[in-house]
Amino acid sequence: MNRKPESALHLPHRRLKLDTLVRLRWLAVAGQTTALLVVQIGLGYPLPVGPAFALVALSAWLNVYLKIRSPSALRLSDRAAALQLAYDILQMSGLLFLTGGLGNPFAFLLLAPVMVSATGLSGRHTLALGALATVAATLLAVFHYPLPWPGARDFVLPLVYSVGVWVALVCSLAFMAVYAFRVAEEARQLADALAASELVLAREQHLNALDGLAAAAAHELGTPLSTIFLTAKELSSEFDAGDPRAEDVALIRSQAERCRDILRQIATLSSDRDRLFQRMPMSQLVEEVVAPHRDCGLDIWVQVSGEGPEPVGSRNPAIRYGLSNLLENAIDFADTAVSVVCGWDDGTVRIVIMDDGPGFSPDVIGRLGEPYVSARSGRGSRHQTGGGLGLGFFIAKTLLERTGARLALENRPPPDTGAIVRVFWPRGAIESAGDMDR
């Protein structure tokens, strides 16, 4: 299968915007300021006002500095974003240290920076921030100022309750971080895979658009070439038979004629009236898919047969690319041979691709078609490209399903080994005149 891009999680458009972190920090500053004012003024509880407001002011000044120094649209690297989130954890830990440690009901806000990291940063940085939050929670369970409370006596939580709060905080941190990271990761993978699918189709359409450009070029170049040809023809009568210049003129004339023939062929291939090149039978489709892989070192067996007349469909880059990708996967994992069987009847067209490799892994065969799902068991592919991650299979499945196809996957029954991929279309979807290469 196709290899997962090493930069899948580090593309520029995947990075957190500086403005996002700044806005979240302004929200934290507003909330912290409100909480301190309510406790100090509204409830009248004693607390170290100076150090607490100093920590809040530090976050505010950091935001002002970042807004002045960097544009809002700046996208941060994973490391820079992780450093800012680490600061937020330490700043919140400092406030909790001054206001009762884990006994403070706002202690669970330590989770917030880790959640932001889980949705936007790599697993390595999220793990590091989670470890930092865990260490901070552990220290706050032991070292902290008393919780602001009315009266002279300090409010002290029982040891068992403090341990319970710590366990709950750490467990919530681990569960929520893993859950948020997995959800965001799947969304990123799906977005990348869909983008890859669109790029493949765009490339095919771009190549097909060159056909129209070739026709335009043939039309524009026809006039000057005709002029050159006629001029050379007239000049040829100006020289004697033995004159070396006559040979040069004859050469120019012959090459101009050759150019005219080439342009005439290009214009013919590009003409919408030539249905031969816009429509193709299933046997030709299978041959176009198989032909580039004839020299792969394996036996490729092709069988084309069916009931009734052979279906004739439109040239469709999605079908060609999807089938080619499935065939490449079979070739990658086959031991000696790959079979491609095409058949049809009055209502259905089907193509079956089989190989004699290790087959699909039982634990993932039900999830194939999702991006980055390892598709094979046992040994790796013949080319050992680090593949087997399912992006190519996802693209193939997506493109084929857009044409009305349905895919069925299974392993060959014992004692045979290998995988079987069946692709089915309603016959009407294949014979439709739409979706031509353009």
Automatic annotation (TrEMBL):
Its EC number is 2.7.13.3. PROSITE patterns: HIS_KIN. Gene3D superfamilies: 1.10.287.130, Histidine kinase-like ATPase, C-terminal domain. It is an enzyme of class 2 (transferase). GO terms for cellular component: plasma membrane. Pfam families: 6TM_PilS, HATPase_c, HisKA. Keywords: ATP-binding, Cell membrane, Kinase, Membrane, Nucleotide-binding, Transferase, Transmembrane, Transmembrane helix. It is a multi-pass membrane protein. It is found in: Cell membrane. The chain crosses the membrane at residues 21-43, 49-68, 105-121, 128-147, 159-181. The keyword Hydrolase does not apply. It catalyses: ATP + protein L-histidine = ADP + protein N-phospho-L-histidine. The keyword Hydrolase does not apply. GO terms for molecular function: ATP binding; phosphorelay sensor kinase activity. Residues 216-429 form the Histidine kinase domain. This is histidine kinase.
